Amino acid sequence: MAIRNAIVALDFDGTVVTHAYPNIGNDIGAVPVLRELLDNGCRLILYTMRSGKLLDDALAWFKRNDIPLYAVNENPTQKEWTSSPKVHADLYIDDSGLGCPLKFADGVKRPFVNWVKVRQQLVADGFLD
Fold it and tell me: How many CB atoms are closer than 10 A to CB 34?
């Protein structure tokens, strides 16, 4: 039985797509796993350094991939119990996070999240069945 209704904060560049900033990187397998999380009632927060048009481009990526976001760079419910600007989440997935499984590919300068291994970890940790 998976953990339901978790809040998951996601980075964008190098996490849901390859690094190509300021452009949008290539697909790295995040979409099916993000959909599984949504199907388990998880709420996704985009937690990114992108702003302005570059943020709009990232939001358009989520829309094109039919992945609804709970929020962007904030957790709306935490205002009830803290004034901290740090986004509260039950889980953070970020290519710069210590221990996040990364993948290297020919022709790609920086490593990016390995979603096959992330999914395995999400199952092991109870976020997915």
Answer: 23
Query: All domains of the chain, ordered by start, with CATH?
Result: 7-124 (3.40.50.1000)
Show the low-confidence residues of the chain (pLDDT under 70). Answer: 1-2
pTM: 0.94
pLDDT at 31: 98
Classify residue 79 by burial, with Cβ atoms within 10 Å: 0-12, 13-18, 19+.
Answer: exposed
> DSSP readout, 93-113?
E-TTSTT--EE--TT-SS-EE
The C-alpha atoms of residue 129 and residue 85 are separated, in whole angstroms, by 32
Distance CA 39, CA 43 (A): 10
